[in-house]
């Protein structure tokens, strides 16, 4: 069968030709209706397969001309189009004399079947009825109007898109840039037209390798960092080709996206993950360290009664070192958030020396530290470890603001907020004000309102997380205080922390926790459950020396055996974390056998307490006097059984 294929798209002609030739038909091709009419008159075909939208002569006009020519009217006509796909288009084609109207793309077998059925259908040889020319013209005009509207829609979308878009020709020069792109690059007017794209984008996005991929019809993705207006910006780019009918590269489009905030958030999440890991490591180290300190302090206390002269001074030195080590592990646990906040009355003069040591280490040698008003400062009511963290964060922030060196001044003073004060977030009353001042450049005015926002930082990506000041604010406000930032008139920044003053008569329990003689027992039976041999031995000696009868167990299994064998247990003193289970659950089981028993727990790792404890918890390392007081208070007759 002789088939004439008419399509202005070379790829479309080639595909149809190979499809029909594979089915055993002889095929000729034409690029438009005018060329097809010449070929048909030279050798009338059996079937004409034609597109609709073509230059010079469209498919509708070709069909009409074929049906009006007596020599060609017997040829079957099949429309095959991707543009004229409305029902009115199909109806017009059939009234013009077509045997079939197919929509692109169709399955090759469907195309072959339609062509063969059209050839055998006895296509009408009569010319189409009058009046169809006007309808054809109207359909063409309607389709043209639709195309114009589509082009206008695309243009509007291009102009109004918030995504920066660049269009370049195959020669690599700019042909289009929407307003978002012009703002991105700071274009003014049309000076960008014809500019090489390689002048604007890095090689990964517009270099030879990128163009080679675009010419192969592939999309290009690239990421880079750049600096604009003095600020670092992370950029993500997607480029894709616009191809012609022969798949040749005509244009390429670049879409740009500012992903600075996304990258910053990813870094913050990574940093937070590192903090969590370090915190867990710190908590684990503190736990092991506390057990070691427990053994050392216990041995020293057992030696102290018989030590005299130089030996006694050495024992006291060991105990002092243990106290210092306990403070360090307390800071580690506070960093790891393994200890709850313990607000109490704290005298700044007694608290500052420990905090000052940390601050000086953080500042290094390039920044001088000055302290004012310490001796006259009133006691504050807060967790001293939390306040220490606040001051340390402020000191680190000040150090980073003075890379060339300078002075950090910490000033203590009393401040009274009167009734009717309009200061936001501050209740009337007496406060301890801690002012931390630096001699750096100060805070840009536009940033003053955001310095305490989580993840906000003006430092580079490798120097700041934006968490230090946010954490400081959270700790201060949790203590019932307030923190504010301002610029000093003489230069530099000032951060003011307001902390509630201690109530009159309130004492710091940490300052007198070892005061007074150790309370002694009267032969009560204590079941001691501790898996660390050295800690178990020292604690047992403490208790026996205080007048208690001690039965020891190294784990839960052994403790249950001891409990079943004992006639009475007055106190169960158990470590929270045991190798074969939870000490709290074990104690409750023993209480089922000995309901008279009181409970007291000990732990060097308060993070092991997943939820509230059913009884008091004695933190390790503890002194003999602290153990004596805790045991005596737990066994006190008026104390309710937990």
Describe the model.
The chain has four domains: 2-144, Response regulator (Rossmann fold, 3-Layer(aba) Sandwich); 161-225 and 233-258, Beta-Lactamase (2-Layer Sandwich), CATH 3.30.450; 283-500, Heat Shock Protein 90 (2-Layer Sandwich); 525-635, Rossmann fold. With 642 residues, it is an alpha/beta fold. A hairpin with a 5-residue loop joins strand 9 and strand 10 (249-258). The strands form six sheets. The chain has a five-stranded parallel sheet with strand order 2-1-3-4-5, sandwiched between helices. It has 18 helices and 24 strands. Helix 4 (87-95) runs antiparallel to helix 6 (132-160), helix 10 packs across helix 15 (533-545) and helix 13 packs antiparallel against helix 14 (468-478). The termini are far apart.
**CATH homologous superfamily name of the largest domain?**
Histidine kinase-like ATPase, C-terminal domain
- Tally of DSSP β-strands: 24
Secondary-structure-based class equals alpha/beta
Number of domains: 4
Share in β-strands: 15-25%
CATH A-level architecture of the largest domain = 2-Layer Sandwich
CATH topology descriptor of the largest domain = Heat Shock Protein 90
Let me know the average pLDDT.
83
Per the principal axes of the C-alpha atoms, what is the gross shape?
Answer: elongated
Poorly predicted ranges: 509-517
Oligomer: single chain
Sheet with the most strands?
5 strands, parallel
Helix content: 40-55%
Counting H and I runs of at least 4 residues, what is the number of helices? 18
- How far is the N terminus from the C terminus? 101 Å
């Amino acid at each position: 069968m002789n088939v004439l294929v008419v399509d202005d798209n070379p790829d479309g002609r080639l595909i149809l030709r190979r499809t029909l030739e594979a089915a055993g038909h002889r095929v000729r091709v034409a690029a438009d209706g005018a060329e097809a009419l010449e070929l048909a008159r030279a050798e009338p075909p059996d079937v004409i397969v034609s597109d609709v939208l073509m230059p010079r002569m469209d498919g509708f006009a070709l069909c009409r001309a074929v049906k009006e020519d007596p020599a060609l009217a017997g040829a079957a006509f099949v429309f095959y189009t991707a543009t004229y796909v409305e029902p009115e288009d199909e109806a017009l084609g059939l009234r013009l004399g077509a045997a079939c109207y197919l929509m692109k793309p169709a399955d090759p077998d469907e195309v072959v079947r339609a062509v063969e059925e059209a050839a055998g259908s006895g296509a009408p040889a009569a010319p189409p009825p009058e009046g169809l020319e006007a309808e054809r013209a109207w359909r063409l005009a309607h389709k043209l109007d639709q195309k114009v509207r589509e082009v206008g829609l695309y243009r509007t979308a291009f102009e109004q898109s918030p995504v920066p878009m660049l269009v370049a020709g195959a020669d690599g020069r700019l042909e289009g840039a929407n307003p978002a792109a012009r703002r991105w690059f700071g274009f003014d007017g049309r000076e960008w037209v014809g500019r090489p794209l390689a002048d604007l984008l890095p090689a990964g996005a517009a270099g030879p390798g990128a163009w080679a991929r675009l010419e192969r019809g592939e999309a290009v993705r690239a990421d880079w960092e750049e600096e604009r207006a003095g600020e670092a910006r992370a950029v993500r780019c997607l480029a894709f080709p616009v191809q012609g009918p022969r798949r040749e590269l005509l244009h390429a489009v670049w879409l740009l996206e500012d992903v600075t905030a996304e990258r910053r958030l990813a870094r913050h999440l990574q940093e937070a993950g590192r903090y969590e890991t370090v915190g867990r490591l710190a908590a684990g180290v503190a736990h092991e360290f506390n057990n070691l300190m427990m053994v050392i302090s216990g041995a020293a206390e057992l030696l102290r009664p018989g030590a005299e002269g130089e030996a006694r001074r050495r024992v006291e030195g060991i105990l002092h070192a243990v106290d210092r080590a306990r403070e360090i592990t307390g800071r580690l646990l506070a960093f790891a958030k393994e200890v709850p906040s313990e607000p109490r009355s704290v005298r700044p003069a007694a608290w500052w020396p420990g905090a000052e040591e940390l601050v000086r280490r953080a500042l290094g040698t390039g920044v001088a530290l000055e302290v004012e008003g310490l001796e006259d400062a009133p006691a504050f009511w807060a967790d001293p470890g939390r306040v220490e963290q606040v001051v340390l964060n402020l000191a680190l922030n000040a150090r980073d603001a003075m890379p060339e060196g300078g002075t950090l001044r910490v000033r203590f003073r009393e401040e009274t907020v009167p009734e009717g004060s309009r200061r936001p977030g501050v209740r009337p009353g007496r406060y301890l004000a801690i002012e931390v001042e630096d001699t750096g450049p100060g805070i840009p005015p536009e940033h003053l309102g955001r310095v305490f926002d989580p993840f906000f930082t003006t430092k580079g990506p490798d120097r700041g997380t934006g968490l230090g000041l946010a954490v400081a604010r959270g700790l201060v406000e949790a203590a019932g205080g307030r923190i504010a930032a301002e610029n000093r008139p003489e230069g530099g920044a000032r951060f003011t922390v307001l902390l509630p003053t201690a109530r009159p008569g309130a004492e710091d329990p940490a300052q007198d926790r070892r005061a007074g003689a150790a309370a002694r027992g009267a032969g009560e039976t204590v079941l001691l459950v501790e898996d660390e041999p050295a800690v178990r031995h020292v604690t047992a000696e403490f208790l026996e020396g205080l007048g208690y009868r001690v039965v020891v167990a190294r784990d839960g299994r052994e403790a249950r055996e001891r409990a079943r064998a004992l006639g009475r247990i007055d106190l169960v003193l158990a470590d929270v974390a045991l190798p074969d289970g939870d000490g709290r659950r074990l104690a409750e089981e023993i209480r089922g056998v000995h309901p008279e028993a009181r409970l007291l727990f000990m732990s060097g790792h308060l993070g092991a307490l997943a939820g509230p404890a059913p009884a008091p918890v004695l933190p390790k390392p503890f002194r003999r006097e602290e153990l004596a007081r805790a045991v005596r208070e737990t066994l006190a007759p008026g104390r309710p059984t937990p």
